[in-house]
Amino acid sequence: MAIPKKLKLMNLYNEGNSYLGQIGEVTLPKLGRKLENWRGGGLNGNVKVDLGLSDDALELTWKLGGLDPLVLQQFGAQTVGAIGLRFSGSYQRDDTNETTAVELVVRGRHEEIDFGNAKAGDDTETTIKTICSYYKLSIDGETVIEIDIPGIKEVVNGVDLLEKHRQNIGL
């Protein structure tokens, strides 16, 4: 029997600024593919053709206690990779005490800043939705997935899935 690795400690950095003690929750980006049904002549059924990343892939949602001026200053950023965020998590198995470092580095810009409800004496929380154009997931220092949308790169387990496509269009 094995106990799963569970998140024990985490932090989020915004342009290198630590949110230790302020970050309440992080919803890591969902990895999704846009698949479209294709049933060509002679096929006895549909196959799903891979058209790349899904439209809602690479959205990072995070919640801060209170209010942060830096996030507000970043609203309306002019480029798709204007803001750098880094999630660091420490996962642990309680049966073996083994720990695993997980790091997610993204670049993007904020689509939404939600201040939530404001009531004196109650907890206040700001929810930020960041749309990412760059994504790199590393586990124990090894890159597992790296996606650079403007750079036309998608590396999974060391293999660049778009390398031949870039060559085919002269890049």
CATH architecture: Roll
Helix % is under 10%
**Mean pLDDT across residues:** 96
What structural category arises from helix and sheet content? mainly beta
Strand content: over 45%
How many strands, which pairing sense, and closed or not: the largest β-sheet? 10 strands, antiparallel
CATH fold group: Pnp Oxidase, Chain A
How many distinct beta strands?
12
Distance from N terminus to C terminus (CA atoms, Å) equals 50 Å
- Taking all Cα atoms into account, the compactness measure Rg is 19 Å
CATH hierarchy class name: Mainly Beta
Separate helix tally: 2
State the shape: globular
List segments where confidence is low: pLDDT < 50 over at least 5 consecutive residues: none
* Helix/strand order, N-terminal first: EEEEEEHEEEEEEH
Q: How many structural domains? A: 1
